[in-house]
Amino acid sequence: MANSYSALGRWFEYLNDDCGYEQWSQYLIKTLEKLGAGRCGVDIGCGNGYFTRALIKAGYSVRGVDISPQMLDTAQRLSLKEGVGAEFLLGDITKLKLSGKMDFAVAVNDCLNYVPKNKLQTAFLRVAACLKRGGAFVFDISTEYKLKNIIGNNMFAEDCEDITYVWFNADKGDRVEMDLIVFERRDDGSYVRSDEKHIQYAHTESEVVSALENAGFKVYTEGHLGKEKLERINFICKRL
Fold first, then answer.
1. How far apart (Å, rounded) are the C-alpha atoms in residues 203 and 224?
2. How many domains does the chain have?
3. By three-state DSSP, how is residue 176 classified?
4. Which helix (H) or strand (E) segment is 170 a member of?
């Protein structure tokens, strides 16, 4: 899905300003502290770099990795604007390769939902290969319930000053296919249209735990087993 964010990639952080970035970043920092993680890490699927910047501001050395060049262009711009010396790399979690071993990896806000089921274990193996033994891996997924009952077969739209989008979603069983029409405002007041297609995969909790364990991770937190209508699950893991 390298082209999924060809238009929205420039606007992702702006459009998600109500998702609780500050609280989410504090959760990551506190979780890494509790795990006794070292200071060197990677933010996989970093998007526009909010969590990369937040972790660096908290004293961590973090690289941001994303599959979208447009995401990374904005991440670099925002990093420079805030005076944060962040390194951003173009990369796919299923092909992830870094120089040196990291103390931790994070993958926030649905990164793993973009990984097909048959590549989920490959993604976790790639993350494991980038971590030191005992390295922490903290990530989340949107649940099967959320994708099927809230996102799937629904339409969403948002009209902002400089960007408008319409978002059509179709539940396809193991995934939700998303078609977006994006209108970006030009300096002269006219708008340019772009079309994007996204696919998010509905991974079950048991599928994720099994793939993690097969990739050499100990899962210390498995979300909230047994809870119905849960929209997001957080996974806290360590590489064995």
1. 15
2. 2
3. strand
4. strand 163-171
Tokens representing residue 228 in the block = 């119905």
Least confident range of 40-49, 190-199, 216-225: 216-225
DSSP state of 118: G
| 95 CB-near residues (< 8 Å, 6+ apart) | 126
Q: How far is CA 32 from the centre of its chain?
A: 17
Report the amino acid identity of residue 131: L
Does pTM surpass 0.85? Answer: yes
Structure confidence by residue, pLDDT tens digits, 86-145: 999 999 999 999 989 999 999 999 999 999 999 999 999 999 999 999 999 999 999 999
**CATH number reported for the structural domain that contains residue 155 in this entry:** 2.20.25.110
DSSP-assigned letter for residue 214: H
Chain-centroid distance of CA 121 in Å reads 17
